[in-house]
Amino acid sequence: MKKRLFYLLLFSLTGLMSCRDKNVSSDTWPLEALIVPTGVQADSLPDPMSRGAILLGKYCSQCHGTPSPASHNSSDWVPVFRRMILMMERSNSMGMMGGRMMGNRMMGGGMMGMMRGSEVPDQEEQQELLKYLQSHALISIQKEELPDAQSEGAELFSKDCSKCHALPDPSKHLSTEWPAVISRMRQHMVQLKMDNLSDQEADEILNYLEQNAGEALKK
Ligand code: HEC
Ligand code: HEC
User: Fold this and answer.
1) Between 201 and 38, where is the model more confident?
2) What phi and psi, each to the nearest 5 degrees, are found at residue 144?
3) Could you tell me if 25 and 107 are in contact, meaning their C-beta atoms sit under 8 angstroms apart?
4) What is the CA radius of gyration of the chain?
5) What angle is formed at CA 143 by the lines to CA 141 and CA 149, rounded to 5 degrees?
6) Best substitution site from 26, 87, 162 to test ligand 1's pocket, by max atoms within 8 Å of Cβ?
7) What pLDDT is attached to residue 43?
């Protein structure tokens, strides 16, 4: 317990000093190096009036934007969720000291902003949250199960589209929907300062997805 606090403090101080040295704002360092959800609008969450969505808005936007449940597939959510609960618990052991020590300059955001105390969901709320995340999770596929798995399109798709989450299942969108999904993903890459797709790569991936897209259900 004491030891943990010590490392957290050490970490925070190192962060603080580096900010000064490089004269960069605490808002851009060191968060830039991490993958942090930029967030979705609360009312664009699936099933926005459900308890899960409300809990997500309450607990999961304390340090970063409200994450979309589609950011991960159902099984990947388990370890990510556990890490986030840990993060909230740790932020509390830093809470008072961290907050005061860092003063106002850290309050705007950034890692130190995160180190302020945050509310932690109780056991029952945690179950509800995880259930919500998993029931609206990304639907993924194994690379070997991809249609035309050996094709260049499949290769490119599986390389570029599994960097932030598991490989999405091409059949889960209509061919008319994929273009918008791809351009949203390119925005995520820009926001997270990742190498983006060239237009040619994006076209190739789109072609592959359109060819293997789902079909509208005829009722
Ligand atoms: C106490 C602050 C804090 C809270 C509260 C918090 N997070 Fe995070 N989150 C972080 C930090 C720091 C990172 C970046 C480092 C990391 O990924 O471990 C992060 C990153 C993420 C990422 C991107 C990284 C990845 O593995 O995909 C997702 C998704 C995420 N959080 C979801 C959630 C969810 C869901 C909740 C609510 C259950 C939540 N967060 C609550 C601090 C927090
Ligand atoms: C920079 C990180 C990142 C990369 C790279 C990335 N995604 Fe995503 N993806 C996300 C995030 C964040 C979400 C959840 C928010 C959202 O849906 O926009 C998501 C969600 C999804 C979803 C589920 C939501 C939906 O609309 O069905 C699909 C499908 C998807 N991505 C496809 C792709 C494809 C195809 C590629 C490759 C072109 C890709 N992703 C590359 C970050 C990324």
Assistant:
1) 201
2) -65, -20
3) no
4) 20
5) 115
6) 87
7) 79
